[in-house]
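Write out the bound-state structure for calcium ion.
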Amino acid sequence: MTTSRPAAVVILAAGEGTRMKSSTPKVLHPIGGRSLLGHAIAAARGLQPHHLAVVVRHERDRVAAHVADVAPDAVIADQDEVKGTGRATECGLDALPSPLTGTVLVTYGDVPLLTTDTLAALLDRHDSAGCAATVLTAHVQDPTGYGRILRDSDGTVTGIVEQKDATEEQRQITEINSGIYAFDGDLLRDALAEVGTDNVQGEKYLTDVLGLARSRGLSVQTHLIEDLWQTEGVNDRVQLARMGAELNRRVVESHQRAGVTIVDPATTWIDVDVTIGQDTVIQPNCQLLGATSIGTEARIGPDCTIESCEIGDGAEVKRTEAHHAVIGDGATVGPFSYLRPGTELGVKGKIGGFVETKNAQIGDGAKVPHLTYCGDAVIGPGANIGAGTIFANYDGVAKHQTYVGADSFVGSQTVLVAPVSVADGCYVAAGSALTDDTQPGQIAVARGRQRNIDGWVARRRAGTRTDASARAAAAATEQTGQTTSQETQK
Ligand code: UD1
Ligand code: CA
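---
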């Protein structure tokens, strides 16, 4: 398809959406990691229109701020107190340069599954037929609530009638108006100036433009779409979930078709911007969110929530929650790990079970395998952090950094009291509370020495079963001159 760029796309998003029963404007509710309006904007932008206008009114400032955020190049158009899709479109055009020669597409901010391809097909059909207007239509089983496509005896489109204005006979028509159109820009502006509000709802209907075009002897046509999901709007939270599930089904399927194994599509939720390399396997119960990118031949899941992370080729991530983290090629994470923003795990590095990390650069091949809090740290390549180590980064006032050098071994249950630095090639004795920096090749021992006090149990715990065992062990040693078998094993 060689689609030309449309002069403009006008997205209508001024309606209230009361059925959402929400303090958040309807079009800002998300599915697939993007607001409903964000989906409409993305579909429109795919056509590279010369102008993009979003018409707002309800919760104007919040919606406008969101548009500025996701599409800074879009024009915000304010709808006034005159109601209806026709008035909304007119306000959209008023915010754009005049004259607006070429094709203008109109879409809705609450129809999230509509694709750029569908808009491109509509635009193509419109441009090649040279019609005044082309409306995207669908045949549905239950057309209740929709505008119906009216045709004369030879099948030519004559207009659209709204449900509330339709006769009983017209209500039997099952070809519905999706609300998505391509118009000749000049015609649209002229016709809207003539459209009144003389209808049951007292609104200025965009649909009246089709009838007006016909009465001026201009031709109007339809473009039928079979994929009904693409024309479906979201009005309440039941539909929001239904559309979210269908969008997810489509996203999951597109990854499967591109060579990703997704074991359980029903429990795998993937946002629209996520990328996944070939031969990666996604186990059940994973949410892959935001701007996450995953390399090839990685293994993700089961049970992961991964938001805006970069995961390398061949990495393995199990039962993990991770946000804004980088996981290197061949690295392993989990089970039960919590990676917070700023975590960067090197190639073939390891973050193991019950480990929490934040602002932590963990070098290539370095390991933080068990039960550790690792915050504000730089860990060199090949270093090993023993079980239960705590990077004490907060002194109650400020956060401080800890360095652990290349190939150093930090013993289990160490507290690294930041700011502190362990040099390359060091050992830290288990159970240390480290406050002073070390030099390469040293071992740091930062704990009390062990004292064994003879006869303590006999004096202080006389008559207990511990005392009895101690006496029995002492007697056996005396008899054989040897230690008991249990002690030998230790
Ligand atoms: C509209 C169409 C109907 C079509 C249906 C498809 C008209 C008169 N009717 O009906 O033929 O079958 O869509 O869903 O066009 N909006 C504004 N400003 C307004 C009114 C609406 O921006 O003053 C926006 C809404 O935010 C929404 C869209 O336009 O995104 C459609 O509005 P809605 O009230 O749902 O239109 P319907 O009456 O359902
Ligand atoms: Ca509607």
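---
The CA atoms of residues 10 and 89 lie 7 Å apart.
The chain has two domains: 8-231, 237-444.
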